[in-house]
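Same chain as my last thread, 53 residues:
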Amino acid sequence: MAQQIIIVLLFLGAIAYLLNLVYKHFKGDAGCSKGCGCESSGIQHLKNVQRKN
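reply #2:
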């Protein structure tokens, strides 16, 4: 039973983390609106990491 609780908590934490990334991405106050690539959101960072690999 304790193992199931730990797994559920980890799953909920992962969902909260992803929702936070999406919220920051659409919030729009990070970086500038010129499209120069200076965004500081985590999703943009993940896209850059994927391009390098």
